C-alpha cells in the first residue's frame, strides 16, 4: 500500500471585484504531520504563491454586465504566463466580490469560470466570505494568532469595505459597508465627474452636497463627502449606534463588536493610500485612477487615528483578497471516506445542522430531530446533496457514537434510498469511529464521507474535491456567507 | 527554652520590620499586618480529622495576577497540559499549584500500584490470568517476570482460548491500571466492531495482570494467531495517568526484536479518544494482516 507522506497541489484564486480583476496561483504542500505512533493528521504545511497576475480593470460590457469572454481571455493569458494549463490546477476558488457580485450575470460567470479554471475550482461570492479571505490574505489572521491580539482587517476596494475581526487566528465577526474608492468616477487625472453610483448619491444627499455628472469639482468640494464615507467606515468599528448615512450604506448586519478593538489593518486597492506618507494635494493626484481612492485612503487614516485606533501594516494590500482566496479557501479533512471517486467533486453541498443543543441519547429521538429539521427546511429529497453537521456525539463513549450513527441512518432513511452519498461533518475527533458505526449499522454498501475536526458552525455550503494522499483526505471548501443569522 | 526562642524570634522580626519600614520598603500597614501575624501564639495546625474533598480550580483558569496579555497566556495554556501560566508566590509556587502537583503525583502512583478491579473485569466479562510476577512488588522489581505468563496462565489459555485466529486482543495492566479502566470500555467495542465488520476472525479478548509488552509473544506462541495486540497501560506522567498504548506484532517468534512491533500511543480522553482509537487500530491491523508484517518491516513496505 504505497502512501506518500506529502503531496503538492496547485491552487488558483481568482478575484473579480468592482474595479479590478486578478488571480494568483499558489502551490500548497500537504503532509501527514503526526508521528508514526499517532493517528495520521494531514494538513497544509506550506503555501507558496508561484504566480501573481497583473491587476486588470474588471472588463464590463456596461455597468451591470461583466464581460465573461474578456475574463476567460485574461485567465487564458495568465495561465500561459505561468506555464500552466487548466488541467494542472487542482483546487481553488473564484470569488466575485463587492459591487460586482450584485451584477446580474455574476452567477453565470461563476459557472463559466468554474468549468474553465481546472477540475475543482470552487465558485464563491458574498461579502462576508470576501472579508475573511481578505483578512487571511493580508496577514491579519496570522497577526492575531501570533500576537494574541484582536485585529480588524478592513478590505477597502472600489465599491465596498469588508470588515473581518480576527481573534487567535479565527474570524469571529464580519460585516460589509458600501464605501469604496470607485463610487464616483472622474476623467483620469482630471476633475470632471463621469459617474456617480447609488451609494455615493446617498452620501451626497445626506451631507448636503450637490455634485452632478459632468460637473467639474475642486478638492475642497469633494472632501466633505469622502470624509463622511470614511467616518461611516470607522463608526462601525466604534459603536452599534449608527448615523443615518452608516445605516443606509451597511450591506450586511453591522459588526457585533463582541471583542474590544484597538488594532486595525487596511487591505484592498485603497490601502496603499492609507499607508501613504503624504496626502493628495490636487485633483490630478486624487483621480489618478479615475476615482477618489487616494483621497478616501487619506481620510480613512485621519478618521481612524482621531478615533484612537492603532493602524497596523498588512503584508499584502491590493492582492490580499485574491491571495486569501487562492491559499486559504481550502481545508483538508480525513477520516472515513468510502466513496466512488466518480461521485467527487461535489459542489454546493448544503450544510444542515439539526442539533441545536445536546444530542439525545436514543437513536429514535435523534432520527426524529433530523426528520423535523428536514421538514422545517422544506428540503425536497430529490434536490441536491446535503451534509449533516454536528459538534459531536452526546459523549465520546462508544455507545453514544453508535447511537448517533443509528439515529442518523434512521432519520435519513428516505434520503439514503435515493442512492445519495451520506455526508457527515463532525467537529469532535471521532470521524473514523462514526463512519465505522454507520457502516456496521447500514447492512448494505453505502457511499459515506465522514469528516471530522472541521467547524462548520457558520457555514452554509461546502464543496468537496477529489481525494488526495492516496485517498486519505479530501479538500473541503467552506463557504461562510454570514455570521449572524 | 522554647519560649525564650519564641520571644527572641519576635524581637528579631520586629526590628527587621521596623528597619524595612524606616527605609520605605514596607508600608506602615504592611508592617502592622506582619507583626500581628508574628505575635500570634497559636500555631496553625491543619485539622487532620476533616475528610473534606478539595476541588481544584479548572486548569485553564488564569493564575497570573496581572498578566500583560491574558489572551496570550490562555492560548498557550490551551496548547499544553504542562504547568505553565500558574503564577508564583515570591520564588515559590502558589498553594494551589503545589497541591495540584502533589495530587497529580498521587494519582500517578495509584495508577501503578493499584490493581484493575474485579468488578471491572466482571463487567467486561473477561477472563483474567497473571504473568509470572506474583505480586505488584515483584512485577516492579523484576521486569523479566512480567514478560511471560505464569504456568497456571499458560495452561488456562491453552485450554480455554480459541486457536489459529487472525487476531488475539490482550488487555494488559502494565504500568497503569487506571488507563485500562478509563479506556477499554470505549476502545474495545469499537475495535471488535471494526474487526468483525471487516470479516476478521478474532479470539475472545482476555486480561493479563502484572504484564508487560513482551507477554504478547508468549500468548501468540500458545494461541497461534496472526496478529496479537496488547492494549497496555502506559507509564503514568503528571499530565495524565490514563494513557494507553496499543502494541501489535505479526507472528512473533524467538527472533523477534522491538522494531518488529507497531505501536499507537497516547490513547486517552485528552489524546486519541479511545473509541476513535478503536476504529483507527482496525485499519492498522488490516494493514498488518495484508502486509504479513508489523513494525519497521511494515513501514518499509508502505
From TrEMBL, chain A:
It comes from the Bacteria. SUPFAM superfamilies: Actin-like ATPase domain. Transmembrane segments: none annotated. Pfam families: EutA. This is Ethanolamine utilization protein EutA. It comes from Desulfosporosinus hippei DSM 8344.
From TrEMBL, chain B:
It is found in: Bacterial microcompartment. It is an enzyme of class 4 (lyase). Keywords: Bacterial microcompartment, Cobalamin, Cobalt, Lyase. Its cofactor is adenosylcob(III)alamin. Its EC number is 4.3.1.7. It comes from the Bacteria. Pathway: Amine and polyamine degradation; ethanolamine degradation. Binds between the large and small subunits. The keyword Lyase applies. One of its GO terms (molecular function) is cobalamin binding. The basic unit is a heterodimer which dimerizes to form tetramers. The heterotetramers trimerize; 6 large subunits form a core ring with 6 small subunits projecting outwards. Catalyzes the deamination of various vicinal amino-alcohols to oxo compounds. Allows this organism to utilize ethanolamine as the sole source of nitrogen and carbon in the presence of external vitamin B12. This is Ethanolamine ammonia-lyase small subunit. It comes from Desulfosporosinus hippei DSM 8344. The lineage of its organism: Bacteria, Bacillati, Bacillota, Clostridia, Eubacteriales.
